[in-house]
Every structure is written in C-alpha cells, then in structure tokens.
Design goal:
Elements: H1 3-9, H2 42-45, H3 121-145, H4 154-170, H5 186-205, H6 209-221, H7 230-233, H8 241-247, H9 250-257, H10 266-278, H11 299-313, H12 325-334, H13 337-340, H14 342-352, E1 360-363, E2 368-373, E3 383-388, E4 394-401, E5 410-413, H15 416-422, H16 424-432
Antiparallel strand pairs: 1-2, 1-5, 2-3, 3-4
C-alpha cells in the first residue's frame, strides 16, 4: 500500500513536505514485552565470545552478515565499534576512546537499542551539507597549498576531518554527498570523497584515535602528486603505455610534498609520507611504484586505496561513465579483495553495506528511491529519498528511514541504465546535480 493510499483511507489528502524524517506510514503493532529474565552467562546461553553481552547492556549485540560474492567468498563484517577503540576525541557514538572503564550493568527491555538516539534526518542533512563543503575546501586548500613553498595546512585540514568523524559516528548521512564531483578540477571532489569514504571505513573497523586522524589526512593528501599530471588524465581518451609509466611517479611526488608542511610532528609526517607513497601499492604485489607485498604496505594505505578505487568506479571519467554503487561494491568484493586485503575491503563493505549510499532501489510501494544513509542496526533497511512514483513520474522528494516504517521495504536495486531508459528527463537532471556548487 502506498503512502497516498493510507492517507486517503483517513479521509484527507496527503501533505507532502519537501523533507520528512518520518512520513506517516503505517507502523507494525509492537508485541507486549515479556517480563525480563535474569541474564544468563554467555556459555550457558550457547553464545560465542563475539556475541557475548557488552558492558552496559544485557542484550547480546548480533552482527549483520556481509554480502557474499558470486565466487562464493565472504567478506567478514567489521567488528562493532564497542569491541574496539572508537572515534577520535570529540566524536559521538559508541566506541569512544574516552571511556575510562566498563559502565555499570543496566537491565534493558528486549529490543532496546544500545545506540544513542540520533537526530532527525533533516537536522543531520544540514550538518552533512556544511561538512561536505568544508571538506571540499580543505581538499582544495591542501592540494593547492602543497604546490607552494611551505604550508601551515595540517591543523586546518584536520579541523574539517575531525568534524566528519563526529557526524559519521552519529549517522553516516555525509556519505550521500560523495556522489558529487567538482567541475573546475576532478581532484578536489575525488580527494574529498575518498577521505570521507576512508573515514567511514576506519570507523567501521574500530581504529584508534591516532590512526583515524592519520587515515583521514593521508586520504586527503593521497593524490597530491597528481597536480603534475592533471591535464593528461583529464582527456577523453585512455592513457597509452608511456603515459601510464609517467603517472606511476605521482605517489612519491605527493609524499615528497608533505615535507612542506610546517605544523605537524615529524614522526606523524614520516608515517604520512609512507602512507601516501603506498596508496597505489597492492597486497598481491601488482601495484606501484615499488610493487610491495601485503606485509610491507601500511594498513592505512590499504584502506585509502580501497576507498580511492571505489570512489573512482562510481564517478565518471572522460572515457567512461560511472558504475552503479551496488555494482561497484560487488566489483570490490569479487575482483579487488586480494588487491587491498580482506581487512580493508571488510571496512569498506561494513561502512557502505549491501545498499551503498546513492544506489537506486525499488520499494515495496512501487516507488523508486535513492539510498541516502545506511542503517547500522538493519543493513537492508536504509534511509532513502523517494523520488519517483510507481509510474516513474517525478514526485516531491521525501526522506524516510525504512527502519521506522516496517511495512515498507526494499524490493530490488534499480540499475542506472534502467532509469535512464524509462525516465530520461529525471536521469538528465540527476546527472546535472552531480556537479557541486557552493551557492
């Protein structure tokens, strides 16, 4: 049943505001909670150590299953943030490194979430838009500044990146903005998007605060050496062999540029230079510039490499169009797991899930929606923006969280080629919206 049908049953015409965190769809009746039973020890309940109750909760935290590949391999989901060190200082949400010790046990009703309640979608939307604009500015300032003699750019960049961690920990709506590209230079949008995706993967993997900061800045600086080759790679044709050989120099050129940073500890600078120089190495030895194997590659460089390739696959280049996000995720699992290492790909899969942000899906109502935010508690029930009705006619966009509407579900992914064929006017406007504007 559609949202409009439910409203007509109530005897009034539906109101369709431009942004709704939860339009009035029918909710499933909640069964009466049984009386809480005394908590059982994990061994007595048949639970493994991985599903044993976390401090502060009497409810075992189940892990979502990761999507299997067609080749039969399974990417193991990343550990929950409660099992690891969490976001850097200032970040909200579970896994914070501020915790001084285990919290006192508190009995909770069945079904009660361990996560702090997040703000409505419209509140997160305003902050995510501002955070993306700041990340783009940080990328632009860093890339351009590193071409100068000296730069006090580390602290300014980290101010934007630390704010991203706080927002991603509350609700990863910021990942929706990685759909965008920049017209004046593809490097700015690509760099900002790669940083945000890598940050989300780092949080999913439960990295400690120091590694999270190095990961974020390393991702923002990973293509600093590409300014030497931007004109060459911006052409509408593929590179020839000699051009590809020249391009293989850019990781080391970018690492050398980090010597121009003045406001960073020399030990952090040395590790960041190693990370930036290794973001195009591959765990199977097929990367460049040194052809390193998995053991010699910094783990943070592998996470950045996975984010870099996913971002590139889902954005157009002069000689090809973008890949659908869900198809790109399948490609990462099937083709690139051995290149980046299981852990890096696991972080990416855990951050983006089976319906990555900016995927198009058909809902059980017949409407077509764009995924705007993953749901950590239910991987198959993301937050979506409903854009087309059952007849593929454009409608007033509505943002809804499917976790709050159990009678509406995702039926299938909708390939971009299908949308472009059946709703060409909508597809053309959507592609135009890819280009980020600051006004």
């Amino acid at each position: 049943m559609k949202f409009t049908d439910l409203e007509k049953l109530k005897g009034r015409e539906p109101e369709r505001p431009a942004r709704l965190s939860a339009p009035p769809r029918a909710a499933a009746p909640r069964p009466q909670d049984p009386a809480p039973a005394p908590p059982a020890r994990p061994e007595e309940a048949g639970l493994s150590s991985e599903t044993a109750e976390a401090p502060g909760s009497s409810v075992p935290a189940a892990r979502p299953a990761a999507p299997p590949s067609e080749t039969g391999r399974m990417i193991r989901p990343a550990p929950r943030a409660e099992e690891n060190m969490g976001a850097p200082e200032g970040a909200a949400g579970p896994g914070s490194a501020r915790a001084a010790g285990p919290a006192p046990r508190e009995r909770k009703n069945r079904g009660q979430s361990n996560e702090a309640p997040r703000r409505p979608l419209e509140a997160l939307e305003a902050d995510a838009s501002l955070a993306y604009a700041r990340t783009l500015k940080a990328a632009r300032d860093l890339i351009n500044g590193l071409d100068g003699p000296f730069l006090d750019g580390y602290a300014r960049a980290m101010a934007a990146l630390d704010a991203n961690y706080a927002l991603l920990a509350e609700g990863p709506l910021l990942l929706k903005y990685t759909f965008h590209a920049t017209a004046d230079s593809y490097l700015y949008g690509h760099t900002a998007n790669t940083a945000i995706i890598a940050q989300a993967a780092g949080l999913a993997l439960g990295l400690g605060a120091e590694d999270l900061r190095l990961l974020a800045f390393g991702a923002l600086a990973h293509d600093a050496g590409m300014t030497e080759f931007e004109e060459m790679v911006s052409r509408d044709v593929k590179l020839v062999s000699s051009e590809r050989d020249r391009l293989r120099l850019h990781p080391e050129l970018g690492a050398d540029k980090l010597d121009r940073l003045l406001d960073i500890d020399h030990r952090d600078k040395e590790r960041l230079k190693r990370i930036v120089s290794q973001t195009h190495e591959r765990a199977d030895g097929a990367g460049y510039p040194a052809g390193l194997g998995a053991e010699a590659i910094d783990p943070l460089a592998q996470i950045i490499a996975a984010a870099d390739v996913y971002e590139a696959l889902t954005h157009p280049r002069g000689w090809r169009g973008p890949m659908d996000p869900h198809a790109a995720m399948k490609e990462m699992i099937d083709r690139y797991a051995s290149a980046f290492g299981q852990r890096a790909v696991r972080g990416l899969v855990s951050a983006l899930t089976v319906y990555p942000p900016n995927s198009f899906v058909r809902l059980s109502t017949g409407e077509t929606a764009r995924v705007i935010m993953v749901n950590r508690r239910s991987l198959t029930r993301p937050a979506v923006e409903v854009l087309l009705d059952a007849d593929l006619a454009e409608m007033t966009p509505q943002e809804i969280d499917l976790a709050e509407h159990p009678l509406t579900a995702v039926e299938r992914e909708v390939p971009w080629s299908e949308l472009a064929a059946k709703a060409p006017a909508f597809a053309a406007r959507y592609e135009l919206a890819r280009w980020w504007r600051d006004w």
